[in-house]
């Protein structure tokens, strides 16, 4: 089993920045090739991929088009922590943000691919 715990959400004005964190724990986490990702789900919409990163075994990173240049995903392997730095937030970024992970060698963007999920953290951007 793997546990993921997100933090850092909140309510901000458009143009502001936030940094989300996701701490991973569990016996097998990070033992082999692992990928981690951020997803978000706005009210009434499907869960969508935001950004993903290979935890070990490479430096592949992917972003959803609408966040490129504004969001940065990063990792601290020593602290088992995944980050999402978000700048220039817009109201369309309002959603619950989730981190997710699975043992894998290739980064994928589909939600069904990921095995473990956190509880999510709410991000609300006011216009």
What this model shows, in words?
The protein is an all-beta fold and 127 residues long. The protein contains no helices and 11 strands. The strands form 2 sheets. Strands 2, 4, 5, 6, 9, 10 and 11 form a 7-stranded mixed sheet that branches. A 4-stranded antiparallel sheet has the order 1-3-8-7, with no helix packed on it. Strand 4 and strand 5 form a beta hairpin. The chain is globular, with a radius of gyration of 14 Å.
Describe, in short, the structure shown:
Helices cover 0% and strands 50% of the residues. The chain is built from no helices and eleven strands. The strands form two sheets. Strands 2, 4, 5, 6, 9, 10 and 11 form a seven-stranded mixed sheet that branches. A four-stranded antiparallel sheet has the order 1-3-8-7, with no helix packed on it.
Strand and helix map with partners:
Elements: E1 3-7, E2 10-13, E3 18-25, E4 34-41, E5 48-54, E6 61-63, E7 71-76, E8 81-86, E9 95-103, E10 116-117, E11 121-126
Parallel strand pairs: 2-11
Antiparallel strand pairs: 1-3, 3-8, 4-5, 4-9, 5-6, 7-8, 9-10, 9-11
